Amino acid sequence: MSLHAARHILTFAQTLDGGGVERVLLRLAEEWLAAGRRVTLLLGCDAGPLAAELPKGLEVAPLGSPAYHRLYAAPRYVRRLAPDAIFCPGNHYTSVAALIRLRLGRGCPAIVAKASNTFIRGDQGRLTQAGYRGWLRLHPRFVDHLVALSPALAAEARAMTGLPADRISVIANPPARYAPDPTPLELPAGRFVLGVGRLEPQKRWDRLIAAMARIADREARLVILGEGRARAALEAQAAALGLESRVGLPGHALDPRPALARAAVVALTSDFEGMPGVLREALALGTPVVASDASPAVREIVSGADLGAIVPPGDADALVAALDHWLAPGRARPEPVPEPGAGAAEAYLELFDRLAAARLKA
Q1: Tens digits of per-residue pLDDT, 113-163?
Q2: What is the pTM of this model?
Q3: Which domains, ranges and CATH numbers included, belong to the chain?
Q4: Looking at the DSSP assignment, which residues form a beta bridge with residue 31?
């Protein structure tokens, strides 16, 4: 262990409600622990679907509330625990990383931040977008190194943050690993469209529900696996469209692979994304996808028309046409595409070690 400069890694998360950022974080932490590193997780709330995925050996420092501002206690924990490296797991958490740097100054460990979403947000108004771009330009002051999930996202990160190329790395998310569901998912007997993700405004599941009222196959059903604040609104929308019998919201699934394998097509209609893992997981099982053009990474994943379709966000006609295409009887499914990222945890550890060693020499 003395050979490792980053013996102790500290990271943070708001909740365990089932978001992709937090799921990937737990996957990485499990592998870092297996490699003999110490990992501490500052956690706002330890309840939620991902609680079953907390790896053994992970040191959890509970903050007692899911409120985001509770994470601003992080500088105090960093001072006390003295980690060798800090991992900021996604765009949502960068203000925490900035506060740690501000409070600890030169005594701050190396901060590695992962760009979990695109930096170009089509959902933002003009003023919000201008403010956000200004915030991105501050990243070089508090982030030692930025990890992008694909070459296209790395190029975007460099342009938007101003970080030089030698402070940006490309590391794909590790392949998904799931805990088994206590009871098997009840899936429709016939053809169905599948959505997987949190029921939150970003995901724009309302677009997919609206499309179901217009598709040619009126027997096809829609299943959305996830939980979140938009549940009531989505249920009301389905009822208003007379789709109660065709739209199912069964909640969060610990293991969505049975549904991904059975679906006629997997759809993602978000306003913005980073590297949407559900698309890769679906294609790894030979299931076609329909996705909004919500990130430069979407075109890297859906690299050919044989894999699925990419539609402009908010283009209702294009979404209906894409769904109709893949729901057509006898439509050939794509050949499975293996997921990348098998060496992701090791790549992060090499980065942490290099940055921590450089700080020791400084």
Answers
A1: 999 888 878 777 888 889 999 999 999 999 999 999 999 999 999 999 999
A2: 0.84
A3: 8-175+342-361 (3.40.50.2000), 192-327 (3.40.50.2000)
A4: none
